[in-house]
Amino acid sequence: MLFPPISFGAQTLLTFDKNGKPQLSQPTKDNYKDFPGETNHQRVGDKWVVPNVVGRNHDANPNYTKLDLRDFWIGKIKRVPSNKPVGEILSQSPKAKELVSKPMPVDLTISSGISK
Fold it and tell me: Taking the domain 6-111, which CATH number applies?
């Protein structure tokens, strides 16, 4: 029987081998995308993993977006018409889970609602 991985914070993952034996592991450049916790910042060796803020409603509380970005920060904001709720983050650059050399601004594309 296979068990799902369990996260112990952004840096440690508990997995189980085919015999059900638990194994603690750290993210590597090959497996870091398998780790849960997309909004938790993590480091993989000397690289940083870009956190995910897509789907969050930035307008409801911009401070939550800042908290989710942690060591990264909000860059340029572009508002575009969308069928998504006003304020919802539609995309980000750099993309979530991209490996970068240091924290940097994350540009956001945010829904301005349906254009009339």
Answer: 3.30.10.20
